[in-house]
Amino acid sequence: MPRLLLVEDHPALAEATADFIQSAGLEVRIATSGRQALQTVAAFRPDIILVDLRLPDMSGIELAGALRATAGAKNALIALHSAISEVDLRTLKNQSNVGINSFISKPITEEKLKTLLAELQG
After folding, report:
1. How many CA atoms lie within 13 A of 52 on its CB side?
2. 3-class state of residue 84 by DSSP
3. Which end of the chain is more exposed for a tag (fewer CB within 10 A), N or C?
4. Rounded Cα–Cα distance for residues 112 and 69 (Å)
5. pTM score above 0.70
6. Residues 6+ apart with CB under 8 A from 101
7. How is the beta sheet containing 48-52 ordered, strand by strand?
8. What is the DSSP string of 8-76?
9. What fold is seen in the domain 3-121?
10. Per-residue pLDDT tens for 53-108?
11. Checking DSSP bridges between strand 77-82 and strand 102-105, what pairing results, if any?
């Protein structure tokens, strides 16, 4: 069963998203800040990390860079997740060189989750 770490600082959205992802057969943990995500990856060792762009303690891009330097996340698929437009996400993708694999607009849908799982399988 693939493991996904959801990094989302809005509790209600985090719970609803986690429930949706679990119903698709993934094991999910939630972190509500960058610091908590960095603490969680070592023990959880997720296959996918879904990171909100705007977190209370750092940006999702900063977190992605920090995660890439962490043993528990070195090989994980990292997807930046945001409510900003698809065009803005593409711009971020072009500017980012910290090892973000995917950029996904909110809300997560079944199709977007399938795409992430397909990327994971390579």
Report:
1. 22
2. coil
3. C
4. 26
5. yes
6. 77, 78, 79, 119
7. 27-31, 3-7, 48-52, 77-82, 102-105
8. -S-HHHHHHHHHHHHHTT-EEEEESSHHHHHHHHHHH--SEEEEESB-SSSBHHHHHHHHHTSGGGTTS
9. Rossmann fold (3.40.50)
10. 999 999 898 999 999 899 889 889 999 888 876 656 566 665 566 678 888 888 89
11. parallel
